[in-house]
């Protein structure tokens, strides 16, 4: 039995812990916070995420908490007109083998946390344990905590997020790239939403340098609102309370229906979105990166958590071996995953600039280009992403 350290107890870290514990390894998850919790609001899960969750043994637990969506709808946010909608039932589920769903982040996180606790003989969950550096000691790796404690193991997985300390030491590539986009989030009780404005869809209203997304979460009890403005922001912000009047003032061009929905939001918080350019290398001997530490992406393809889950499955499969083979297998993990995740990172950026935020003539051309696509053509476009089963497909 090998011993593997995981820096970070978020979705990716717990998924990796589950996968590695199921290969009979002993895993210690090092979480810097005082508890194992997940912040945030809604999250979208495509069929590739459910394929990974099933491999991790938690798919049914997430399905019990999920809202299964019938459509992804793209609307012209200034005219209230439907551009196109991709159906997510029938042929979609037959083709991809799983549903498309939305959940509150805790509804994804809790089944993973439960899975780790069910494997308590192999998974140790440590809080207030911040990894600040690592080193190699022959055929072992040493993680140094902020307390000065040194932990020695057979491998270290950096799942410590977009500002990963492990990545910082490994790649030295500085701070994340600030996108210049600010996202405002609110979650409201569904009972406050007029019946005429409810739908079992992920709906995106696209406008000039902004877009607005909403969908039901928590079994349909709440509506998740997320409005993004291309405002040129240069300083990262995370979870800052924002007055309702400010949010409404940022989206004065919204059409009537979208405007009514946005006006329902309360207790808004804002984030300035960041990502990084794709990296070729995520591995340093017995140390590897996972999830946002390896390939942070903008939210526009709704694949950040999905990619972390895929990472965990591939990592677990490859580390089903004696610890002396870990360095070679981690190199294979890096090679197997970097092309797919790099494409997802770049597609997410492209969706923001070319699909969600065009104005005037460019917006009209977008509408004309996308409105003629059939359901089958839309499914074909999504196939490389939603249809993956070995998680190396580009």
Report on this structure.
With 394 residues, the protein is α+β, with helices and mostly antiparallel strands. Helix 1 (11-21) packs parallel to helix 5 (105-118). Helix content is 36%, strand content 28%. The protein starts with a strand and ends in an 8-residue tail after the last helix. The longest helix is centred in the last third of the chain and has 31 residues, at 326-356. The strands form 4 sheets. The protein has an 8-stranded mixed β-sheet, sandwiched between helices. A 6-stranded mixed β-sheet has the order 8-2-1-12-20-19, with helices on both faces. Strands 3-7-4 form a 3-stranded antiparallel β-sheet. It has helices spanning 11-21, 47-56, 59-65, 91-96, 105-118, 165-171, 244-250, 256-263, 304-318, 326-356, 360-371, 375-386; strands at residues 3-7, 26-30, 42-45, 67-68, 71-76, 81-87, 101-104, 123-126, 131-137, 140-145, 150-153, 155-158, 177-189, 201-207, 210-217, 222-230, 240-241, 269-275, 283-284, 287-289. A hairpin with a 4-residue loop joins strand 10 and strand 11. It has a single domain, classed as 3-Layer(bba) Sandwich (FAD/NAD(P)-binding domain), CATH 3.50.50. The chain is built from 12 helices and 20 strands.
Q: Main traits of this protein?
A:
394 residues; alpha+beta; eight-stranded mixed sheet; single chain; 36% helix; 12 helices; globular; FAD/NAD(P)-binding domain
